[in-house]
Amino acid sequence: MRIPQTYVKKRSVKGLFEFWTKKISLWYIKNKIMDISVVIHTLNSEGVIRQCLESVKGFDEIILCDMYSSDNTLSIAREYGATIVLHEPCGGIPEPARTFAIRQATKEWVFVVDSDEIVPSALKDYLYRSVSQSNPVDALFVPRRNFFMNKYMRSSFPDYQLRFFRKDKFVTWPPTVHARPQINGRIRKLPARKELAFIHLDTNRINAMIAKMNKYTNREMERSKNRNVGLGRLIFKPAYRFIHSYFFKGGFWDGKAGFIYAVLNMYYKFVAISKCIEKREIKG
Predict the structure, then answer these.
(1) CA angle at residue 236 from 235 to 238, to 5 degrees?
(2) Which residues are paired to 231 by β-bridges?
């Protein structure tokens, strides 16, 4: 039996239409899933922001939330085509402005990067591969490599940071120092591999660290106001922090820098708990 040519032609056109419709749909879905916004917070960050922006320029969108810098931070940001939004200063920490800045992102995925951090190309590629999977998790902890006195601190690795997530799974970012975002979804950690880690630039000289310590420990009091603090906590918590950093995490391999780093970490905890005790004693 001979099939009419008009029927073959109709079937061919219909088949081609279905084929290309499917192709276009798959392309759209794939590209929609892969869109990533980078969100960066700045305050007088001209010394580091260029390195940061250079490392993230291949992402789909850059949102730069500035806290009224008085240096050339915004001029440098404009060179990279960043979308600039402004937020009032938050006492030297970015957390109170995080939720506002994340809400400005227009892409499905958000990657929060500090102005003194660099994103290696291997990390960027890994993130895009992760979100292009059929059922990716909703958020990722990203490892970070910290430097101090021009030396990579083995004792602080992997220093996981929860910075990558679906925007629609993001709830809020608590406005307290060292807070983590609240995510309503599945979370996992990236492998603790150096090539997949943020590079945290060596901007913290000892003078700067001690100055920050005073600001941060004041904020720590807000987070710890309902905890029981006493002499036992004051003695054992700082001691444990030193032992963990210097011995358990291998800070002794980092030489003098590793010892100083461990002592400063211990001192931070000592000051934070001391301030909580002081506040409670004065109130009592």
Answers:
(1) 80
(2) none
Grouping H, G, I as helix, E, B as strand and the rest as coil, residue 195 is helix
> pTM above 0.70?
yes
Query: For 80, which DSSP code?
Result: T
In terms of pLDDT, which residue wins out, 34 or 43? 43
- Alpha-carbon gap, residue 267 to 210, rounded angstroms: 10
Alpha helices in the chain (DSSP H): 5-34, 49-56, 73-79, 95-104, 121-131, 206-223, 231-243, 255-283
What mean pLDDT do residues 192-196 have?
A: 95
Which of 67, 58, 70, 112 is CA-nearest to residue 86?
67
Q: Is the pLDDT of residue 6 over 50?
A: no
Q: What are phi and psi of 176, to 5 degrees?
A: -120, 155
Residue 226 has which token pair?
Answer: 């309902």
Residue 57 has phi, psi (to 5 degrees) of -65, -15
Evaluate the omega torsion of the peptide bond into residue 175 and state whether it is cis, within 30 degrees of 0: no
User: Could you tell me if 172 and 98 are in contact, meaning their C-beta atoms sit under 8 angstroms apart?
Assistant: no
Cα(first)–Cα(last) distance of the chain, in Å?
101
**Which residues, listed in sequence order, are joined to residue 83 by a DSSP beta bridge?**
63
- Cβ contacts of 243 within 8 Å, gap of 6 or more: none
Provide the total of helices (H) and of strands (E) in the chain, helices listed first.
8, 13
Q: Decide if 206 contacts 259 (C-beta within 8 A).
A: no
Domains by residue range for the chain, with CATH:
35-200 (3.90.550.10), 206-283 (no CATH)
pLDDT tens column, 237-274: 999 999 999 999 999 999 999 999 999 999 999 999 99
In this structure, what token pair is assigned to residue 19? 């084929």
Structural contact between residues 116 and 43, judged by C-beta atoms closer than 8 angstroms: no
Higher pLDDT, 213 or 80: 80
